[in-house]
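To the team - flavin-adenine dinucleotide complex, inputs and output below.
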Amino acid sequence: MYDVIIVGARISGSALAMVLADRGYRVLVVDRITFPSPTSSSTNLIHPPGVNWLRRWGILDRLNEHSIPEITHYSLQSGPARLVAPLPSVEGVGYALSPPRISLDQALADAAVAAGAELREGVSIQELLTENGVVTGVSGVSKTSGKMSEKATIVVGADGKNSRVAQLVDARKYRDQPVLSKSSWTYWEGLEQEPLVRTYRKNRRHPFSWPTHDGLSIVGVAWPTDTFPTGDPEQTDRSVIEAFTDVDPEFAERLRQAKRGDRWLTGSVPNFLRTSHGPGWALVGDAGATRDPITASGITHALLGADLLADAITDGLENRPMAEAMAGYTARRDRLIGDHYDYTRDYARVADHSPEERALIAAMSRSPRHGQAMIGLFATVVPPEQFYTRDNFRELFGYLGGAGEVPWTSRLVRWLIEGVPGRPAWASGTADRLIASKLGPMGELLLRSPVPGGSGRRPVSAPTA
Ligand SMILES: Cc1cc2nc3c(=O)[nH]c(=O)nc-3n(C[C@H](O)[C@H](O)[C@H](O)COP(=O)(O)OP(=O)(O)OC[C@H]3O[C@@H](n4cnc5c(N)ncnc54)[C@H](O)[C@@H]3O)c2cc1C
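Output:
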């Protein structure tokens, strides 16, 4: 009998196993794969909060065999508007990392075992054991020893987006949307790079690139699913380089001087949240929340989920009935990741920015505080509800450019904020509504934020070390 059985031993499963085993619980973690196991379905950018968990848990020390540059800046270029800003820090970690998944997954599994968890590889879980409607264990097949079954106080599905555990407990999906974007990406050798994540948006294409490990770089482009170009590898080379030439000819030239180091990979996933706890079971990582990879937030949020679930399970093993301890877990996770999930879904439409949005990106490039907060938002450091506030955007309009760059609608908003004599509340309220109407789902956050002058949330300053 175990305290916890975890199905899936990559990011969320091994992280959870490590934390719980370290607290002294009997943990069994199983995976149908055997380590080391490559995963060709994911790039590997980890934002500062994720890097901070890996640092705290000693995982970074296990990746020393690789040279992994610290990525300190992210950029967003949309037409002529270009924002480059340093990442805000989380507990002194002001950088992202992009370690190879094969080594990261292995390091997490090794750390779980070192903490005292039992890892069984080559075990595929097929069914759940239940008693009176409560999940009490798992059964499956081991590649080496045939049929197996084990019991535990709680069973966790950390088994990815097609979670078998979620399927067996019939976990409900919500806020779901089908695949929105599809990307082609791979590793390049010999590409001259700054410590920068580059993202671009133009002509319904989203080129991206960043340095990863051992001199390699990720290079790719995301398209809306309906315009994703198919073709042989040479055609994909041309499509990708053409997309970069359209947005950044200088970087495209660097690409021409470098060499594609692997075959092209294609990635796309649907978007959903799932109810992530019930009698005797819980879900973590992609099993409970899967989103488009366009904001590269899956690993960071899988680590966040593992941290959160570890505390809920600990509470249930120590202080009160498990059902009571787990009661708020799904809602707590959604409060932490839900707004960023919506931001990601909106971004994954790969829609071109409107002239008003471009004017705001240009304004952010003139205001270091706003620029860093925007980059921090993308990187899951700054919560969207802290960024999309009336205060923050009214102030941002003070950084708008000249008439040639700014559409008349944005100039009208600036006049409503700054130009109406006496600055009456009706004028700034109208400005807020006009701003919100251009921000998609994030506009709702802005309208929910406190009216300046009243009590409530303050505009965001990006956290510092
Ligand atoms: C194209 C693409 C690019 C991405 N790029 C990034 C990025 O740059 N940065 C980022 O943060 N995220 C990225 N992601 C998302 C990221 O890959 C996932 O969020 C992350 O892998 C989730 O980790 P996990 O441990 O929850 O699940 P997974 O990594 O999917 O692991 C699940 C494990 O469960 C095991 N399993 C499944 N079923 C069973 C079973 N029945 N029995 C036993 N074992 C089972 C599997 O073998 C697997 O090892 C990307 C995703 C895609 C598709």
